[in-house]
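Data card: per-record layout.
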Amino acid sequence: MRAGQMLELILFLLFRKDEEEMAVIYATLIIKGKKTIQDVPDRLKDVVKEILYSLDCGWMAEE
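The structure for this 63-residue chain is written out next.
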């Protein structure tokens, strides 16, 4: 694996983890009533909805 490919892979994994953490944060804020699904950036909405459904809070994922 070339150094450039390795760097791309590392960056992908780092940013993906950040997005997953942000999705958990948004889901938590939605459950607490501080945010709604409409406040979630489009790139995170699907993951946030999955989290909400897995926590039996699917009704909070409705737009």
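Known properties of this structure: The helical segments are 3-31, 42-54. The radius of gyration is 15 Å.

See the next section for split statistics.
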